[in-house]
Amino acid sequence: MKTLYAHRGMSSLAPENTLSAFKLCVDHQVHWFECDIDILHDGTIVVSHDSTLDRCTDRSGSLFELKRQALDSIDAGSWFSDEFIGERIPTLDQLIDLMNQYRLNANIEIKSCDSNADAARDLLSGLDKALERLDSQVEYIISSFNPMLLAEFKKIRPQARVACLFETHTLNDDWHVIMQWVGAEFIHPQNQGLTREQVQMFKAHGYKVNVWTVNAKDRANQLFNWGVDGIFTDVAQRFPKGRRMVGKGGAK
């Protein structure tokens, strides 16, 4: 089974990491999406890729300095198009509700949480608590570029399936040691520079391989022919329906 993950939701059709971007997965029959989580000053966990507001909202400044009530006045959609004026930064609780409602599966990426260590611990414990509300029929993968956070989360929630993210320049000879240390089942390497030999090496070690971020259909086809299990893409709607509809249980 080969799986498409809608990167930050249907991020070419709606503002990334918003409820609208995730809901569009239903319309396009994409069963898996990817999103990012971080934490606010008051402990509220939100869906956001950046640690600042500047790129994807009508505000600037640090995400961590916010409290929950501030989210009601921050526009996370008008930068994308008029259709999404008033779109909000979602909370993790809202994300879980959406996953349960639409039976959508998610790869949830834990951001490195550059505010402080206590906030990082709160992020992990809050994620664990939120996942308790997830319907048993809904699947998830927890990923991060920070293996320390992943290893700690695996201790908190041993049943979680976790994935180590690697950029091309961080994929060193010790990659398998990091994977073993974390207890990861998935490796998520960067698309740029990834070779068939590397994919074969990952598979020979028994890992599932999901590659980010792949927007060209011919490259995706090549990767799948090499044995890759899934790809993250910004343009899931452009792929053949047969590819998009795969994914219910496809990450297992």
UniProtKB/TrEMBL annotation:
Source superkingdom: Bacteria
Pfam families assigned to the protein according to its UniProt record, in alphabetical order: GDPD (PF03009)
Q: Where is the GP-PDE domain?
A: 2-243
InterPro entries xrefs:
GP_PDE_dom (IPR030395), PLC-like_Pdiesterase_TIM-brl (IPR017946)
Question: Which PANTHER family does the annotation name?
Answer: GLYCEROPHOSPHODIESTER PHOSPHODIESTERASE, CYTOPLASMIC, GLYCEROPHOSPHORYL DIESTER PHOSPHODIESTERASE
Q: What is this protein called?
A: Glycerophosphoryl diester phosphodiesterase
Q: Which organism is it from?
A: Pragia fontium
Task: Name the gene that codes for it.
Answer: glpQ
